[in-house]
């Protein structure tokens, strides 16, 4: 990202955001609600066009032609899993094999789906269930299986532990770390959960008020002399983000 900016009417959501993610590394973007994290992700994916700045992949701007090729190389775990209620689990996982230029024969698509379900700790008996028959943690794992179904080079994780209890949050965080490392994928995660940061991140970028307030290796968070970062990490009621009296 280079000098990325986005506003809605007079509300500036992103201002001159610049950072990079090395190949094979895991970046976690942190910040409170309404700080621009989701808009940043939507700009990267091309859902929302930025007003200024540019987004580059492999050193080249992501114009319309290159973005189409890029989208074939990414996977995404959506907040809340975002499964299709009307489809059985295996068809959710194999969704991209049912559409477009990734289409596969039904038997092969199912086989790949069952393989990815196994990778996230779900047995083949899960394949024919429907999302409504799964717990929240199982739904999240199905969403993760779908995100890695095509063995993507780049994976996005949108608030991966939202709505999960502490134990299942830990399970999902560990799975994400293992899978990203195993696949050698480049990952961008947006979250406000510091447990996710500690498990998943190689590096961290913090947004507040649409601006990049701090970025660096995850190992430097504890020693960083940054008031925004310190308040967010400690959860203090006093600081530049918000002061409650």
Brief descriptors of the model:
single chain, 245 residues, alpha/beta, Rossmann fold, six-stranded mixed beta sheet, three-stranded antiparallel beta sheet, 8 helices
Quick structural summary:
This protein has 245 residues and is α/β, with parallel strands linked by helices. The chain has helices spanning 37-45, 64-71, 89-93, 106-119, 136-147, 166-183, 194-200, 227-234, and strands spanning 2-8, 11-17, 26-30, 52-54, 56-57, 60-61, 74-77, 154-158, 186-191, 203-208, 211-217. Helix 4 packs across helix 5, helix 5 (136-147) packs parallel to helix 6 (166-183) and helix 6 runs parallel beside helix 7 (194-200).
CATH superfamily: P-loop containing nucleotide triphosphate hydrolases
Per CATH, which architecture? 3-Layer(aba) Sandwich
- The separation of the N and C termini measures 37 Å
Number of helices: 8
Q: What is the approximate shape?
A: globular
Q: How large is the share of residues in beta strands? A: 15-25%
Class, according to the CATH hierarchy?
Alpha Beta
SSE string: EEEHEEEHEHHHEHEHEEH
The counted number of beta strands is 11
> Which quaternary structure do these chains form?
single chain
Roughly what percent helix? 25-40%
Low-confidence spans: pLDDT under 50, at least 5 residues?
A: none
Report the average pLDDT across residues. Answer: 90
